[in-house]
Amino acid sequence: MAQEAEDDGAQTFLLTAGEAEATVGYKLRLAQILAFRAFEEKLSDRGRAPRYLGLLAIIRNHPGQPQSRLAEAVALRRSSLVTILDILAGEGLVERRPVRGDRRSNGIWLTKMGSRVVDELLAESRRHDAMLTEGLSQEEVGAALRALDRMILNMRNAEGG
Prior knowledge:
The protein is α+β, with helices and mostly antiparallel strands. It has a single domain (47-159), classed as Winged helix-like DNA-binding domain superfamily/Winged helix DNA-binding domain (Arc Repressor Mutant, subunit A). Helices cover 57% and strands 17% of the residues. The protein contains six helices and five strands, in the order E-E-H-H-E-H-H-E-E-H-H. It has helices spanning 24-42, 53-61, 67-73, 78-90, 112-132, 138-159; strands at residues 3-7, 10-14, 65-66, 94-99, 102-110. Strands 3-5-4 form a three-stranded antiparallel beta sheet. Strands 1-2 form a two-stranded antiparallel sheet. Strand 1 (3-7) and strand 2 form a beta hairpin. Helix 2 (53-61) packs across helix 5 (112-132). The chain is globular, with a radius of gyration of 19 Å. The termini are far apart. Pfam families: MarR.
C-alpha cells in the first residue's frame, strides 16, 4: 500500500513498509528521522550542536555531571558519549573539569558560548515543535508526550536501567 504525498503540487506515492507500518517502533523511528533531518537542515550553520541539543540541555540543567551519568541520561554507551563530548568540546560548547573529591572523574559543563547556543537552539526547537504538532490540540500533544514518556520508561525498564 502506498501513501499519497504532495511534492511541489504534484502527487507522488511513497513506498511503504507493509506490516511494519502498524508498529510503534517503525513509526517512532521514521518520525524521529524526519523531525531531526528538518531541524538540522534549518540549522546547518550551527555545526553539530542541533544534533546534540538534548544532551546539551541536560548538561545545562545538571552542570558538572560525570560522563557516565550523562550517557545514562541520553541512553548512549559511555564510549559513544566520549566521542560526542570531544566534538562538542572541539566546537567550544562544553568543557571537562575535574570533579572535587574525585581526581579520577571529570564533570561536564557548558561554556558561555555553549549556553548561548542552547538558548538559541531551544527557541528554534519550540518553533519546530509547533510545526510538528500543527493541527493537534493541546490535549493530543499532551497525550502524545505522556505516551512517549511511558514508552521511554518501558524501554529503560527492559534494559534494566
